[in-house]
Every structure is written in structure tokens, then in C-alpha cells.
Amino acid sequence: MTDKITNVLVLCTGNSARSVLAEVLINALGEGKWRAFSAGSHPAGAVNPLTLAVLAEQGHSVEGLRSKSWDEFAKPDAPVMDLVVTVCDNAAGEVCPIWPGHPSKIHLGFPDPAAAIGSEPERLAMFRAVYRQIEAKVRRLIALGPERAAEI
Predict the structure, then answer these.
(1) Is the model's pTM score more than 0.90?
(2) What pLDDT shows up at residue 91?
(3) Which residues carry out catalysis?
(4) CA–CA separation, 21 vs 17, rounded Å?
(5) What is the DSSP string of 14-36?
(6) What confidence score (pLDDT) does residue 95 get?
(7) Is 42 helix (H, G, I), strand (E, B) or coil?
(8) Averaged over 50-66, what is the pLDDT?
């Protein structure tokens, strides 16, 4: 058993919903053995309020969560990532920066809850559904470990 912490960068375009949900879930379910960060190729500038609502109702802290550029994680002083996970098809298709450490990459696509239309309760239901989908994939990722992440 190793004490190494697995660093994961979760990417999406806006970094306001899916990538933030995955970041929080990896940090919570990883029990200190996984450390997640999230970023976007074109960050929205703020985390979607419904993302924050779902995380809070699930008992997660939302303190310090912010929408940020993936450029922060391509700098020489950035944490070295072991794994980069794209959670939206747009980010998966974009040319990413060169990440220090040359991490493994996987794509786990999820519907964009920020694009949901309807009443607030209907949109909130979409955020909850995507949260559950991401939670299932994160549990599988952690069970398999970073070396088998491509099997998800």
C-alpha cells in the first residue's frame, strides 16, 4: 500500500457545473488518497448556483469553489497531475495545454445540467441526476485506481 496521493484535474468548458461536481466528489470519496482540482477551457467566471445547491444538500462544503482556467494548472509551479479527466465532449475535443508530469487522460461524458431548461425545480432535478451519474463514475474510478482509469 502506498501513501501517494493521486492528483486529478477535471476539465470542462465552463468549469461551473460538471467539473466542479466531480472535483468535490473525488475529494470527498477519495478519503485523502485522491486530490482533485477542476478547471475550464473557457471558465464561466462563477460556479453555477444550482451546482452549489446540490453540493450543499448532499452535505459537501462549497467554500472556496470557483470557476477557473485550465491555464492555472499548466504553469510550472502547479501541482503535478496523475490523471486528467474531461467531463464534457467540448473539452475532450479541445487541444489542451501540456500538463507538467504528462498525466494519463480519460473522458467521462455527462449531460450539461447548466444547459437544462424549465423551471428551477426542473433544472435542479437535472443537476441532481448528473450529480448521481458523476458519483457513480467517481466511485468506480476510485475503486479501480488511477492505473486502471481507462476501464471505466
Answers:
(1) yes
(2) 52
(3) 12, 88, 96
(4) 6
(5) SSSSHHHHHHHHHHHHTTTSEEE
(6) 60
(7) coil
(8) 97
DSSP 8-state class, residue 106: E
Q: Assess contact for 25 and 17: CB atoms under 8 A.
A: no
By three-state DSSP, how is residue 138 classified?
A: helix
Q: Which residue has the cell 452549489?
A: 52
Distances (CA, A) of 108 to 111, 113, 121, 144: 10, 15, 26, 15
> Which DSSP helix (H) or strand (E) runs through 9?
strand 6-12
Statement: residue 96 has pLDDT above 90? no
For cell 444538500, the residue is: 57
- Residue 46 is classified by DSSP as S
Which cell numbers hold the place of 152? 471505466
Report pLDDT for 101. Answer: 73
**Cell 481507462, located at residue:** 150
Please give the Cα distance from 128 to 36 (Å, whole number): 20
- Give me the mean pLDDT over the 96-121 stretch: 86
List the beta bridge partners of residue 36. Answer: 8
Per the prediction, the chain carries an average pLDDT of 91
User: Rounded to the nearest 5°, which phi and psi values hold at 40?
Assistant: -135, 155
pLDDT at 99: 64
Going from the N-terminus, what domains does the chain have, and what CATH number goes with each? 6-145 (3.40.50.2300)
